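Thread: Modeling a multi-component assembly for a lab meeting

Hi all, long-time lurker, first post. My supervisor asked me to bring a structural picture of a complex we are working on to next week's group meeting, and I have zero experience with this. I have the sequence lines for every component (831 residues in total). Could someone generate the structure of the whole assembly? Inputs are pasted exactly as I received them:
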Amino acid sequence: METIDHIMNGFSVALQWQNILFLFIGAVLGTVIGMMPGIGSSAGIALLLPMTYGMNPIPALIMLSGIYYGAMYGNTASAVLINTPGSASASMTTVDGYPMAKKGRAGAALASAAVASFAAGTIGILGLSFLAIPFAEFALRFGPAEYFMLMFFSMSAVSSLAGKSPAKGLFAAFFGLMIATIGMDLQTGMPRYVFDVPELQTGVSFLIVIVGMFALTEVFVNIEKWFMGQLMPVKIQGSLLMTLDEWKRCWRPIIRGGLIGFFIGILPGAGGTIATVIAYSTEQKLSKNGHEFGTGAIEGVAAPEAANNASTCGAFVPLLTLGIPGSGTTAVLLGAFILYGLEPGAELFDTHPELVWGLIDSMYLGNVFLIILNLPLIGIFVRMLYLPPGILLSIILAVASVGIYSISNSTYDLYVLLFFGGLGYVFRKLKIPVPPLILGLVLGKLMEQSFRQALIISDGSLKALVTGPICIILLILALTAMFLPAIISFVRNRREASL
Amino acid sequence: MLKKFKYIALPVVGFGLLALTSGATPADAGWKPSQNVEISTTCKAGCGPDRIARMLQKIWKSEKLVDADVIVHNKAGGGGGIQLGYIDAHRGDGHYLGIASASALSTYLTGRTKIGLHQMTPLVVMGQAYISTAVKGDSPYKDGKALLAQMKKDPKSVAVGTATSRGNSNHMAISLAALKYGIDPGALKFVIFQSGRIGRTNLLGGHVDAAQSSIGGFIKHHKKGKLRIVAVAAPERLGGAAKDIPTWRELGVDAVVANFRGVFGPKGLSADMISYWEGVLRKTVETKEWKGFAKKRMLAGKFLGHKEFVKFKDEKDAQMRVVLKALGLLKR
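Re: Modeling a multi-component assembly
Sure thing. I ran the full set together rather than chain by chain. Output:
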């Protein structure tokens, strides 16, 4: 079969020693970049792009994709260890990853993240290799109405993230939606809640909110605990890697998360963050251990990590097949392609098959590299937690602040960071869950704009939102997600009562 | 004691000589950068103006056109206001440059920013990305005029997608064409998308009937027949892959709108500084590297020096005022 031939050819390209070297350099650089919040893989790629001008396109592109993967792994490491997601897409990983670290299972969390990323990446790459073209065409059918229904379905995840008090969960979610409205409105160009502050015109950056409400809040809470003499040192429990039981628990979330992530990644409007949110909440609903989510369930780490990695592959689909980048980072890669004189699009498969398959196969290798590179390093990373709190908390504060400042060199961003750190502390004290706020904030902008775009096109008719198979399916999924838990417990109660 | 004196004497004399000579410059050298040069852009790493800035950085180094280190800063936000504010804080300093596009004028006129290109020193225009209007490849609209005719008949029947904000060049291009054709642009149905690529995707998927973008964004899809560019807002036909695309002028509608890419400095630059940068940038556009870059990004149009840029800016400002007023967006 021709595709298999191509894949094998691709490997012969990817396995050339200089390409492996560049992949290695990229992966290491990427991991370091990824651990700092703020400097994301897209900025890293854009900044390193000029360095690659003199190079052959194939090793250059391979190095850049190595950076991309490395960064994703680095994001996870800091999310699990110090509750500081290195990028927005790692924020769901903190929800279960950090509690696992506090329970002494940091090694297992990192290991499951690495394995999940690898496995899901493989699923994603397989999808990319064989299903790219039909999927890309399918993705075109997502217009504003379909995006709105997708976001609507994702919002139903609030029910699983709310924890014990639905009212508090809803409050947090709506608060997040409110924050999402700050900024220049896209359709009318009018400022909303901007208060004449120019920095607010583009809204509140959700990365800053996340780093504030996770990392900084954690610092404040730990300082308080230290003063009250309640700070417990972390003890590593058991093996650094996963136990057999943990392995068994992981494979389903990996497959589910991987499929969800790949598909969401294909959609140009939705990115890794949305994929992780949807994967996390879906996993919570479907998993046997759903009630443990939020306190350190390993599925809660595996699912979003799988989704994140798979969505990266998904984002390549529209890039390679239609020449339309599926995410911000692939947009930068598109620029790289163009600079090298290559026109990504379906015909690139015909004119430069060795390049396309070489790139795809280097992604396989990238995943392998990450496992090889990072599994032994887990032991070193985990040792970080043994640092005395004064040093560790200061490091977290420094890493978070420098990372955020590096985005726009703006002290204003640091004030916002501090504000949300304080807000997160208040939320903690009032026992208001933070993940629904993140959900509202991340999904809010796209949900509202899609809604209005759809209504503008339909001249105000709400019917547009439920027209077409995609919208209807998403609506059914959303209603199911909202009412299924209630129905199940109702049925279960009836069954128990009759026994 | 005297012995130690000789150890101090030599360095002191040495420094003294160094200090005396470093201040001296030949009388006719004009101005040259004496510290790092900064180029600021209005958007994140990887976006259009940012790529131009980094290309300048690269060419100036490889062709040795500027004898100083060049740093690129991303000062995104505030509709360009952050970048403008930053450069405005360095009035009279020739080391601070900015990449401007048409939004440096329009965001001031719509009241979004407190200052605009009007309060800066325009240096040169590197090129112009003319705005084109496209429909889906299998759409019944064969050229721009057919599209306008339908819009005139029933403005609500055509959904036009544009990015990235109301009142920018993309929005203005079709609005100006409509205005010249006798349609009130305020009656048209505009859907604003978050970015050019989301707009393109929606057009390809048939969710909107037409979309606007600088021609570089559509040309690839036009070549493959997935999209049809029905008109381009250029003064005359563009060559290459775009040679079969009619201009609005040819169709009887006098609309020329481009998202120009220019370089500017803060207010109060001396004549020496201006002529230095004009010279460097003139040499830059002559290099093979720049020509290749401009061709790929479909950056067309003549290079405009300082005086021509000032005139160009005034023309563009007048044009924008007309369109923005018709759209109800003019605030100054």
